[in-house]
Specification:
The complex is a heterodimer.
Chain A: H1 5-14, H2 27-46, H3 48-55, H4 61-86, H5 92-100, H6 118-135, H7 144-172, H8 176-195, H9 207-212, H10 220-238, E1 248-250, E2 255-257, H11 263-273, H12 277-290, H13 292-312
Antiparallel strand pairs in A: 1-2
Chain B: E1 12-18, E2 25-32, H1 36-47, E3 55-60, H2 72-80
Antiparallel strand pairs in B: 1-2, 1-3
The chains are: A mainly alpha, B alpha+beta.
The complex binds fe (ii) ion (2 copies).
The site of one fe (ii) ion (FE2) has 5 residues of chain A, from helix 4 and helix 7.
Chain lengths: 313, 99
């Protein structure tokens, strides 16, 4: 009693009690969550495009069914997350608007092109792999609707990574040309995957606050290191080479040391100058605009049905 | 923060799923749909892609009324001091079986 709203909120955070939509929360917490959740949702939605590019060209019916199911899952992930964001008081239309106008960001990895079928393997293995590493800790995040959405997402992600690894395995055990395709895809997706964890800790000023709020549970560099350690071992199973000359086991640290990341490239892609930024956003906007008549028609139909039912009653 | 609802936006629905026969429906999440029929179809696609359900309920979100977390203390207070509602409140001799 006599506790201020802020104190009450802080106490809940400290006691690991979940914050729910109707609980009081500081404005910054709400804003940060909306930004983080919507950015994540947009990434799931935009993330369907590079893989969607290969559905009709999958090499077998099995691969096609799998890729289709994976891309459909990503749509689902986007939808879980959009509705989690909406519980914070922002509308779906506003969220879309922020994406379409470039006000909101999505993961810059999806601004790279998918040039060969091997890219489907590399994306599943590396991009979904990095996403899982980022997302698993968020299943215990402080905001209830976000945490529950993440539990669903994580449950579905593991097949995404495994199907990607399976594609890489098949290619790397195949003909010389197939193995070369796999290595080439690995070379192109490795560094952008490391960038998925975000800028180095020294340059992410909000990390401390976010860790305190439990909307981030590990720092960017911690997760990146873990990804390098795990993935390097997996590459050995594939018989592929990690495209980093500086990669070396460091006995003392108990981790792999790795080469420096080209952060200029990262920021350049974030700013909109990646190979596919324009293409991705245009595809999204076109789909939204061309779908307007369908949304209107569905609404008109629903209203007509309702009116008819009211008359009959 | 006030929700700015554009006219074109489909209504929001809350989705409840019975995961298998005999269990309660449990809140799964929400989605947008033009009407109840579409809400059920969308719920199937969004929330039951891996046979997570055998039955779906949808309710338009605006019809959900929720208790106020700020009043939780007073709302649940009447139940707080009635430990005699629990069987462990009663001390019976060990010889008493099946009770
Ligand atoms: Fe996903
Ligand atoms: Fe995925």
């Amino acid at each position: 009693m006599g506790q201020s709203l802020q104190e009450h909120f802080d106490a809940m955070i400290d006691k690991d009690i979940t914050i729910e939509p109707k609980d009081w929360m500081p404005d910054d917490y709400r804003k940060t969550l909306i930004r983080q959740i919507s950015q994540h949702a947009h990434s799931e939605i935009i993330g369907m495009l590079p893989e969607g590019n290969w559905i009709t060209r999958a090499p077998s019916l099995r691969r096609k069914s799998v890729l289709l199911a994976k891309v459909q899952d990503e749509a689902g992930h986007g939808l879980y997350l959009y509705s989690a964001a909406e519980t914070l008081g922002i509308s779906r239309d506003e969220l879309y608007d922020q994406l379409h106008t470039g006000k909101a960001k999505y993961s810059s990895i999806f601004n790279y092109p998918t040039l060969t079928w091997a890219d489907m393997g590399a994306i599943g293995w590396l991009v979904d792999g990095a996403a899982i590493m980022n997302q698993v800790p968020l299943c215990r995040t402080s905001y209830g609707p976000y945490a529950r959405a993440m539990v669903r997402v994580c449950k579905e992600e593991s097949f995404h990574q495994r199907q990607g690894f399976e594609i890489m395995l098949t290619l790397s055990k195949g003909t010389a040309v197939q193995k070369k395709l796999a290595q080439d895809a690995f070379n192109r997706w490795w560094w952008p995957s490391l960038m998925m964890f975000g800028p180095p800790d020294a340059e992410s000023p909000h990390t401390e606050q976010s860790v305190r709020w439990r909307i981030k549970r590990f720092t960017n560099d911690e997760l990146r290191q873990k990804f390098v350690d795990v993935t390097t071992e997996q590459a050995k199973v594939l018989g592929l080479e990690v495209p980093d000359k500086d990669l070396k086991w460091n006995e003392e640290r108990g981790h792999y040391d790795f080469g420096s990341i080209n952060w200029d490239e990262f920021w350049n892609v974030v700013k909109g100058n990646g190979p596919c930024n324009k293409q991705r956003l245009d595809a999204r906007k076109t789909a939204w605009e061309k779908g307007q008549w369908v949304r209107d028609a569905a609404m008109a139909h629903a209203e007509k049905r309702k009116a008819k039912a009211a008359k009959a009653a | 923060m006030e929700k700015e609802m554009k006219k074109s936006e489909w209504p929001l629905w809350e989705v409840f799923i019975r995961s298998k026969a005999g269990l309660d429906h449990k809140h799964a999440g929400s989605l947008h749909a033009a009407d109840e029929q579409m809400a059920i179809e969308n719920a199937r696609d969004v929330y039951t892609r891996r046979m997570e359900g055998v039955s779906i309920w949808v309710v338009e979100s605006k019809y959900i009324h929720a208790s106020d977390p700020g009043e939780a203390d007073s709302l649940y207070d009447p139940a707080n001091d009635k430990i005699y509602r629990h069987p462990t409140f009663y001390n019976l001799p060990d010889e008493v079986k099946y009770m």
